[in-house]
Amino acid sequence: MKRMMLTWALIFLSLAIPSLALKANDDVSVQQNSGAVADRLAIRELIESYNAAVIEKDAAKWIANWVEDGVWNLGGGNIEGKDRILESWLTIMAPYEHASVFAQPIFIQVEEGDGTAHWHTNERLKLYSGDEMLAVGRYKDRYVRIDGVWKIKQRDYSVVFTSTRASEFSE
Fold first, then answer.
1. Residue 37: is it exposed, middle or buried by C-beta count within 10 angstroms (0-12/13-18/19+)?
2. Which of 41, 86, 104, 125 would be 133's cystine partner, CB 3.0–4.6 Å?
3. CB of 65 within 8 A of CB of 151?
4. What's the chain's average pLDDT?
């Protein structure tokens, strides 16, 4: 009964307030892929390179994906500049024996030498203690093309959810 009432309430709202339905559709169109397929593929490969460097714990490969004046925000404020970004990444990665990150694009948009994308990430992290963490996150990115090569200009991260599992050897 509650489900039927909710359904009718939603139908009524969509009929009574058509501007809400239009607003929802506008938001959907904003999250569609756009721009040259070759550029979108290059951005996807950029993020695959970024993720592979995390898995390999290769700081040089990881930071090579960024522009000099890049901005990284993990929810605690902006980290600005390639040197500070790398220093922060090394600190963040230090307690992990292994980290794996896989990304699924929500959308990738390109216009001339600028790009934007949103990604869902699946992350599995193993601490040296043996404890493990699973995380699903979301990145909102900006990119720039420099001399024909796409680089990360800004990454803003937010956590969707996390779960942890203590090692059987943890105290």
1. exposed
2. 125
3. yes
4. 85
